[in-house]
Amino acid sequence: MKNPIxxxxxxxxxxxxxxxxxxxxxxxVCRRKLSRSRVLAYFTKLExxxxxxxxxxxxxxxxxEISALGHEVKLMPPQYVKPYVKTQKNDMADAEAICEAxxxxxxxxxxxxxxxxxxxxxxxxxxxxxxxxxxxxxxSIRGHLAEFGIVGAKGRLGVDAVIVMLRDNRDRRIPxxxxxxxxxxxxxxxxxxxxxxETDRRIAEVHKTNALSKRLETIPGVGPITATRVIAEVADPxxxxxxxxxxxxxxxxxxxxxxxxxxxxxxxxxxxxxxLRRLLVAGAMSMIIxxxxxxxxxxxxxxxxxxxxxxKVAAVAMVNTIARMICALMMTKERFNPRxxxxx
Length: 344
Known about the structure:
The protein is α/β, with parallel strands linked by helices. Helix content is 53%, strand content 11%. It folds into 3 domains: 7-101, Nucleotidyltransferase, domain 5 (2-Layer Sandwich), CATH 3.30.420; 115-208; 211-340, no CATH class. The chain is built from 13 helices and 7 strands. The strands form 2 sheets. The chain has a 5-stranded mixed β-sheet with strand order 3-2-1-4-5. Strands 6-7 form a two-stranded antiparallel sheet.
């Protein structure tokens, strides 16, 4: 090829893909659309080059496939590519922006996930859907019963008591027609709970066979679900420069609105990975609840933290520390050492 393509920006889609290619001098060599069936055939004919893509749906699949053809593939967060769009949004402009962004020396890239990691993410995603479905069914049953003056207690025991009442035909507080309508919801709730238990069993199997996951479980507040979620989300721990970088990726560092040498810090950013952040917060809250039940004998440093901060603020502070521990264990390949835990 007279002017070989050295960099390609590939705008992904469901059916029609846009390609923007430049040569070593930065001159535009190729602008074309590709159907889904022609993408791999097109890259097979090219000399090895740098291919940039946004880290969106199906990006990891295409990154693996194109990398197997000898090309260097880099994924970028879409929010980092957007500033390079020169005109209004369209496929051609997006592909050009991707091609420009991937060559920037300060660009941050997303590590490519393996098929096993994505399979584990599917397992976690299905579990989340079952949990949401369970919550919807429970709220629906509670809402319908409230119309008859029946309000169940909070928590799992309250739901169990409501179900026992619905299955008791001698209880005349609700009409038979309402009971006949709600019983199928109870049966569906039972099936959903079985599915949740089955996904938990599969997660436990993955956890037992993964050395990194078992090491992460040694950290306080981290269980099999959180540990396996971490190994599914983090393709390359070396991509984080420090524990703080990992914590920022999870969205646990304060927002900054600083200017003129004056630092202004706000609430946590909540950017990055909301599912992982939610699991970490749940683990920290369970630690606080358990510590209160035991009288704080296991974690005396937690007493001092809760004396200064409200419960949820203390939980987020703990999550920040836990996230940095996770990053440290992934990088050093060590187990958690309680002696290295700094007091609050």
